[in-house]
Amino acid sequence: MFYIVTAYHAEAKPIIEYFGLKKVVKNSRFQVFAGEEVALVESGPGVVASSCATSFLLAEFEATDRDAVLNIGIAGAKNINLKKGDAILCHKIIYHDTKRAFYPDMIARHDMKEGVLETFDFPVIKGNFPEDRIEGDAVDMEGAGFFEAASFFLPPHKVHCIKVIHDYLEGVRVEPSFVSDLIRKNLPLIEGFMSSLESIDCLFSVGLSGKEKEIIDKLAGNLKLTFTMTHQLKNLILFYLSKHERLPGELYDFLNVRVNSKSEGKIYFERIKKLLC
Amino acid sequence: MKGLKSCFVKSFSHIYVEEGIEENPLTKEILKKFPKALKVRIKHYKDVFCRPRQNFFVQESSRKLILAAKKGELLYRGPDICHDFGNENFYYTSPALNCIYSCDYCYLKGMHPSANLVIFVNVEDYFKEVEDILKQKPLYLCISYDTDLLAIEGIIALSAMWIEFARGKEDLKLEIRTKSANYSAISYLVPASNVILAWTLSPTEVIKKYEKNTPPLELRLKNIIRAIGDGWKVRLCFDPVLYFENWETAYENLISRTFSVIPADKVNDASIGVFRIPRDYLKRMRKNFPPSEIIHYPYIETGGVYTYDEEVKGKIIEKLWSLLKKHIPEDKIFIL
């Protein structure tokens, strides 16, 4: 599942349309839209809002390590080499207020430019704020809040900020339709990145399947296994599966066994151990 | 699989450079070798290296390079689970963290939160600390435990620097352990009598299955022959010895092949080490469910260390010992 956090509806709109998301009717402070593979939340502007909305979305949808979360929105550029409309995948996100920096794992292939994002608590306008105090290539008002919150839930190769350059900090009025256009034009690039993330997840999606977990639970219950024995059983099954494609048929025979005491269970556990080693 | 591989950014696509080391000559030298890499400035190497929830196994497919200066303690007492080869004052140091190889059983996967490669460029500080200790006592120092220094010699010639530093220091004995076939990177040096080049040797079956990206046995042997021929002291490390189907035949073949090409009388010494790993490291390695039979094997825990049960361990040691002593005097074989 991909989770997306935007600040404004104008940023969310093209994404909602592109992925065919539907509004999720929920009694919540945030607007949420979701489809089969993508869920989006509109946070509103600011670090705290972004942080809250990110936590809300990831907790509400019970995000796991297999999922990824993106902050997509517009930003102002300090770096004049960045063009208006360029999508920037940020390899460093600085929170201007504390100078704390966050680093996503740049592992997935993409065709965007890369840069440093600096998040401010206020709109940065050239002339009102000394340029030499801006460390980032681009500035926004959400990235750092989003990143810190998302890092509580997901590994750093699954948390990313993508910013589309909207202005050069001239303090221009933000026109919603222009914002939507900027985001819309970059969605194929963003989707390409999402597909790299998805492929990586497929490569590393190991562990136990739901069915295998069910077998462990059933054996643990029927054979009155202790917590440690259940843990050992899980590990033995992983050991067996690292060498074989599927579990041995004989293991399924143990599913019909029910023991009356823990000592009886131990005897069966030793037999299972032999079978899986 | 090939298609899926293209979803990764190339390794060392990004180089994270710690503040304050930009002008260090080693930093400049390394950066010159990666002109296309994106340089990212960081405050402290741990800001990247120690982030929570990193996935070591995913990162191995696209490692990044972190350049930093190590502060605080630079030399550590040798741990009990490592061979001291009869030396007193056994220490080790880590001029780099992590390795470019990816061995299934490697404890680094459980020791470090990240697969990214860290190189500490303040080599002079390491040398100073060694010199300070040498004023008090002799030192047996292993410099390639938490990395494979010779394997990254192409990135930075740390092995060569350490060898030159050690040369002539009678109280200092250095071990450089490697699985690499990169001897040519230091072959121009005059051998130093207090430096031991230690090669880890494994059966071909193990190399193919569990030692991803490492050079094949034949290449390692060729490098050993050259090093011995040039006059270097060479140690052979049969460590870790693994237990798997047909392990006995595999190790018989390994040892007979090794000594069919390497003059046994020229080998400095050899070690046998049954696979062992600290409990917490293995627990961490298992957390990401890598599909590896080495990681999920039902080991026995003794004193915070996981290893094979006594019966298997005994069999392994007995077998390797009997195979090795045919070629090397018993007093030159070290077992752990």
UniProtKB/TrEMBL annotation, chain A:
Coiled coil: none annotated. One of its GO terms (cellular component) is endospore-forming forespore. It holds the Pfam family PNP_UDP_1. It is an enzyme of class 3 (hydrolase). The keyword Transcription regulation does not apply. The keyword Membrane does not apply. Residues 4-104 form the Nucleoside phosphorylase domain. GO terms for biological process: nucleoside metabolic process. Gene3D superfamilies: Nucleoside phosphorylase domain. GO terms for molecular function: 4 iron, 4 sulfur cluster binding; adenosylhomocysteine nucleosidase activity; DNA photolyase activity; S-adenosyl-L-methionine binding. Keywords: Glycosidase, Hydrolase. Its EC number is 3.2.2.9. It comes from the Bacteria. This is 5'-methylthioadenosine/S-adenosylhomocysteine nucleosidase. The gene is mtnN_1.
UniProtKB/TrEMBL annotation, chain B:
It is an enzyme of class 4 (lyase). Coiled coil: none annotated. Its EC number is 4.1.99.14. Pfam families: SPL (PF20903). GO terms for cellular component: endospore-forming forespore. The keyword Cytoplasm does not apply. Keywords: Lyase. One of its GO terms (molecular function) is S-adenosyl-L-methionine binding. InterPro entries: SPL. It comes from the Bacteria. This is Spore photoproduct lyase. It comes from Fervidicola ferrireducens.
